[in-house]
Amino acid sequence: MKCLFVTFMWNARAEMPVPGDIFAVCCQSYSPNGMTRYGRYTHLDDMSALTQWTKDAVYHNITVLETAKPRKEILNTVAETFPAYDVLVLWSRKEYELFRQAMHDCGHRLCTAKVVLLEELLGAVVRPRKRGRVPFQQVLRAFHVQTTWETFYQPKYRAGFLLELWDRVSQLAAQSEEWTQTELCLNPRTNTVHLPGCSHLGLPGGQPCTPQVLLEGAALCRDCQKKKALYLWEMERLHAVKFQPHAGALGTPQDYPPAPKLFYREGDPQKLYHDRACPCCKPFREGPDYLQWKPLFGRADAAALGLTACDRCSPLGIRYGQARTQIESFCSQRGMQCVLRDGEIDVTTSIGGWRLVWKGKDKIWLYHKNTHRSHLTESEDIPGYHSQAIHKKTIMEYLEYIVQHDLYRKNSPLPETGSVPAAKPPEPTHRGHGHHRDAKGAKHFQKHKTNKVKVSSLEELQALARQKMTGEEE
Hints:
Elements: E1 3-10, E2 22-31, E3 34-41, H1 52-57, H2 63-66, H3 71-81, E4 87-90, H4 93-105, E5 115-117, H5 118-125, E6 126-127, H6 136-142, H7 149-152, H8 155-175, H9 177-181, E7 184-187, E8 192-194, E9 207-209, E10 219-220, H10 222-225, E11 233-234, E12 262-265, E13 272-275, H11 282-285, E14 293-296, H12 299-304, E15 308-309, H13 315-322, H14 324-334, E16 337-341, E17 344-348, E18 353-358, E19 364-369, H15 373-376, E20 385-387, H16 395-411, H17 439-447, H18 458-473
Parallel strand pairs: 1-4, 4-5, 6-11, 8-10, 13-15
Antiparallel strand pairs: 1-2, 2-3, 7-8, 7-9, 12-13, 12-14, 16-17, 17-18, 18-19, 19-20
Helix pairs in contact: 14-16
Region (Disordered): 412-474
């Protein structure tokens, strides 16, 4: 059995989209002989009416829609790539109607009447946590289908998630006794499945079947969907089920294409690049001038274009903006200057300079500007600065430390740069000539130094020995 998995993304301006709203077509076929994957962006009929969801889905890279091929050319390729299939699998009925209408407008017909709509199927056999429609991505998480923000909206991979969901529903059905023991009735004339006793079965009463036929393209009666007698599983218990990865599923390879996290504006005289959530540029990227904003896939790309980081969207810049009023008031009262530059904070006081640097994982490091010769030879991350052995959580805590440090240094100043005394020559580490000792020998020598008496002849030495013996006898 050959299955074709199809999903769309469209510019949702109304409840029921039209083919002109489609901006991405995602297809993947699977059979025991192999699989074929095809996904492309398509050119929108009205590029001036993009919704916010559409901009997010293309990672604000509107260029891919401007340069995309027309919808008719893409659908013609779909018809040529997938000329025959036994079962058509989609997520919702809305997508099915949209696919059928779009193919009809291009002069093509669907190859089969066997259609599996997973949203309706799961809505009939899985008891939801709460009433209402369950989103596609939430169902994927319930069935342990791993997705990432970088790939969920990629046309090339989106249909692969639908394939993996369909396979895991099949695995759950094979493991469930309720699924195999549930008796349903199939109307072979309409290929529709009913509960026993359904009024839509007709006089013959239908053929006995199991719910497995629902995964093979049989439709479920609309009236039977509303009855709770078909609930075979509960959404809360799906986390305990163990699934095997499907051979044709996308899985989680390491070579996923990255999603852009940085943006810059063409013609910007300041040549700045911004983070995706930067407060100073996000309103403009989502406004009427969004076409001027281009994506970047790393800081190396920004450096190649000669761009510098925006201060406000840097980690320290965000924290500086949150406490700006308190920081400016604190600095003005104490005669300090605090400047945010290139994602770092420079603090200047009356007797020194400081720099706050972001080290990642909520770590802020403080560096003190070198003013004495003893610091000039140290190897530091920032030239001309040495790190302080102090770590705080907020910028205000560091500013208070700087004030205390400067007050202490005013009361206990260090020698000036030119008056530093010369360093003592290193002491020899070898023994020799009696007065050159190592640390242990020198200590022993000083201990017994006072007990030694100088003698000039052998007679004096013998006299001292007799005197000592006489004193011990007494």
